[in-house]
Design goal:
Elements lengths: L1 H28 L8 H15 L18 H6 L4 H8 L7 E3 L3 H10 L5 E6 L3 H11 L3 E7 L20 E5 L26 E5 L1 E2 L12 E4 L2 E2 H5 L2 H10 L6 E5 L14 E2 L5 E5 L3 H8 L2 E2 L5 E9 L17 H4 L4 E6 L3 E7 L4 E8 L9 H5 L12 E5 L5 H6 L8 E6 L8 H15 L12 E7 L8 H17 L6 E7 L7 H12 L7 E4 L41
Parallel strand pairs: 1-2, 2-3, 3-4, 4-5, 5-7, 6-8, 7-9, 9-11, 10-12, 11-13, 13-16, 14-17, 17-18, 18-19, 19-20, 20-21
Antiparallel strand pairs: 14-15, 15-16
Protein name: F-box domain-containing protein
């Protein structure tokens, strides 16, 4: 009797559960959100996934543990039966997946219908991977391939037909399987002409694709290794660039000094390039590559975190050289240069193009590592067209004799003098400034005849020892000499930085009294305090913020442009 009661209770519970489910369906159907048409709800789902990062720009560094975010989509499909039905009947929601979970991969592929796929695949199970690519290769639009646990040379999986493939990224942190007999320029996907629009290879290990890429706009090449480093680096690179006539955004890193040993007379022409970025590379090798690539006149060239490990910046291989594209540097009108014993910062900008060089010399502790480099800068840049110069250098000879002498059209000069470079004392700082003013006050031919504005930031010690009177005498001689020559200054700004605050009435009065002596020769004489605007500003302009580069992948923070001038 008890057994019958239990069975009846179970049946009653099941009936009650069904009634409750139906009741909830009826209640849900009366809510406003349930009145949204399925096609609108599907669009909302897509927008939610986009905001959650499920369909965001993938990271370029996809390691073996990196996963495609599926939780937001699965959460949406479990809210209600209607939401689940809408999600399951919207194939576009199920097109991006990885192969960490075989069952989930199969479910996504089935639910995506005939939509183009975006797959992040590990190469760990080669047989299953080959089967997947053979079955679905015809509708893969994006493929992020992580070589794991070995780096295959070259990837044997990339011989399937993939006519829709637009973006291919290959990355690895694992040990390579080296094959010295393999083709260093394999043809991917069995077709000489490729439809790829974006390609990233990291690291660049012993091979580069030999395909012709008529539509490729984005190219990322990681650290150079293997025969790509030691055999014919420049030949491989110029050959690849020659196969990318539509290339707009080029990014590579890790070009080593050994690349200068390879010789090629081939030049690559990149007529559509908009951004050329090289980081963490040897300075000489990078300059050599720029001599082998012809750039358009409207392009941004960023050479960041370069290094000199052998020799010094004064060696011939490292010195500024004539580039293959003189049109690229022809429009530069603004130049900023800063250097200490070991570090160099240079940015030249114009209305159509710009050049950025940041480099460090690791050879020894000799002073003025970059002095020979800066003195030959005119070999690379047409300094005669520079209108604005912001400069901070150590050597008191370089600015007047090797920069100003080559810039006849300069109209605005800003100088920053800082004693902390190598424990420079105050006498050294003012000595540098005196040399500058003497050069500007010289007799015919007068230096920088178009000069209108001069601004100086200078660091001093205690206010009682600050050498303003001698400095003001040199300044007065300079402005008078230019006035007599018919080339008067229109603005002179002085910004002293002292160990004690400048707000003492006595110091302010002393500075103003000294500067008042030159007001009859200069229209605008200004004493700039620390709390006000910076006279010699080093600040990254918005021109370097190229969001289009990350259309297909997300870079690391240290790969994006940012000013790093810690000694200023």
């Amino acid at each position: 009797m008890l057994r019958v009661d239990v069975l009846q209770l179970a049946q009653s519970d099941d009936t009650l559960t069904k009634v409750l489910i139906e009741l909830r369906h009826c209640l849900n159907s009366l809510t406003p959100v349930d009145q949204i048409p399925p096609e609108i709800l599907a669009h909302i789902f897509g927008y939610v996934l986009q905001l959650s990062g499920h369909e965001g720009t993938p990271k370029l560094y996809h390691g073996a543990t990196e996963r495609v975010r599926t939780r937001p989509l699965l959460a949406l499909s479990h809210v209600s039966s209607k939401w689940r039905a809408v999600a399951l009947n919207t194939p576009s929601l199920w097109t991006r997946i990885d192969n960490h979970d075989g069952a989930q991969l199969e479910a996504f592929i089935q639910r995506s219908g005939a939509m183009p796929l975006s797959l992040h695949l590990l190469t760990q199970d080669a047989e299953r991977l080959d089967h997947l690519l053979q079955e679905e290769g015809h509708r893969i639009r994006r493929l992020d391939l992580t070589e794991y646990p070995h780096w295959v040379d070259p990837p044997a999986h990339l011989q399937v037909a993939a006519p829709l493939l637009e973006c291919l990224t290959i990355t690895s942190e694992c040990a390579p399987v080296r094959d010295d007999e393999s083709d260093a320029t394999p043809i991917l996907f069995g077709e000489r002409v490729s439809n790829l629009r974006a390609f990233a290879l990291r690291p660049l290990y012993m091979w580069i694709p030999g395909n012709y890429f008529p539509h490729l706009t984005h190219l990322y090449l990681g650290t150079f290794r293997g025969r790509i480093l030691y055999d014919d680096t420049m030949r491989y690179l110029t050959s690849l660039f020659s196969n990318t006539p539509a290339l707009q955004y080029l990014f590579f890193s890790g070009l080593q000094a050994a690349a200068v040993l390879t010789v090629t007379s081939t030049r690559a022409v990149l007529p559509s390039l908009r951004a050329f970025t090289c980081i963490d590379s040897d300075l000489a090798a990078t300059l050599l590559l720029l001599q082998r690539v012809e750039l358009p006149e409207n392009v941004l060239v960023r050479l960041d975190d370069l290094h000199v490990h052998s020799g010094d910046p004064g060696d011939g291989a490292y010195l500024p050289c004539r580039l293959a594209s003189e049109r690229f540097v022809a429009s530069f009108t603004r130049l900023e240069i800063a250097a200490d014993d070991n570090n160099l910062h240079l940015v030249a900008e114009g209305p159509r193009s710009a050049l950025w060089i940041r480099a460090t010399c690791y050879v020894d502790d000799r002073q003025d590592q970059w002095a020979p480099w800066v003195t030959t800068l005119h070999a690379m840049l047409p300094l005669a067209r520079i209108k604005t110069l912001h400069v901070s250098l150590l050597n008191e000879v370089i600015i007047p004799n090797h920069l100003l002498a080559y810039i006849p059209d300069l109209t605005a000069l800003a100088l920053r003098i800082h004693p902390d470079y190598r424990e420079m004392d105050e006498d050294t700082c003012w000595g540098l400034l005196n040399e500058l003013f003497r050069a500007l006050s010289g007799d015919a031919p007068i230096v920088c005849p178009a000069l209108e504005s001069v601004g100086v930031e200078i660091w001093g010690g205690d206010t009682e020892d600050f050498r303003l009177p001698p400095a003001s005498e040199v300044v007065r001689r300079m402005v008078r000499a230019r006035t007599r020559a018919g080339k008067p200054l229109r603005r002179l700004a002085l910004q002293p930085h002292l160990e004690r605050d400048l707000e003492s009435p006595e110091m302010v009065a002393a500075f103003r009294a000294a500067l008042a002596l030159i007001k009859r020769d200069v229209e605008d004489v200004e004493l700039v305090r620390d709390s006000e605007s910076v006279v010699c500003l080093f600040k990254m302009s918005d021109v370097w913020k190229v969001d289009a580069f990350e259309e297909y992948w997300e870079l690391l923070d240290d790969e994006r442009p940012r000013y790093n001038i810690p000694w200023l």
